Amino acid sequence: MRRLVATVAMVAMVVGSGILAGVMWSCGQPSVTTEEKSARGFELPDGDPDRGREAFVELRCHSCHEVAGLEDELPRPVANPATGVKLGGLAMREPSDGELVTSILNPSRHLYPGGEEERITSGSGSRMANLNESMSVQALIDIVAFLHQRYETVQSKRE
Questions:
Q1: Is residue 58 a contact partner of residue 129, using CB atoms and an 8 Å limit?
Q2: Per-residue pLDDT reduced to its tens digit, 56-106
Q3: How many structural domains compose the chain?
Q4: Position 68 in a domain
Q5: Which of 2, 47, 122, 158 lies at a 20 to 30 A Cα distance from 151?
Q6: Distance CA 38, CA 116 (A)
């Protein structure tokens, strides 16, 4: 029964029926902040990192981003000025699915200028192209799987 309710709620949200989704979600659920809604319970299905790498190149993500460990295998960034935003590498913790998806679908959410704001911003938002209408959900899932492989945590380095 819980699976049926969850499935109906998901379909309602995807279809865009805010009324049905709101009613089903609000039944017995405490209200949450935007931050809590964004992170809680978000997990993608397993993607294919090889297809993710292909999608990364097809969508021209490499035009602005280097990927740790693949500097000599992927085409070099050509953005001018260079963004300097390298993906993957050594990190305190691996980013979550939600953090990677947010960075791809809503790059203006967290902009971290490294001194020269024009490297990553244009007007009031990110220089990153909006791929929301041209990228399939499967491509997004696969790109996230590809990027997950490129991170190495400090903890795993010690082991």
A1: no
A2: 999 999 998 999 999 999 999 998 888 778 899 999 988 999 989 988 988
A3: 2
A4: yes
A5: 122
A6: 29
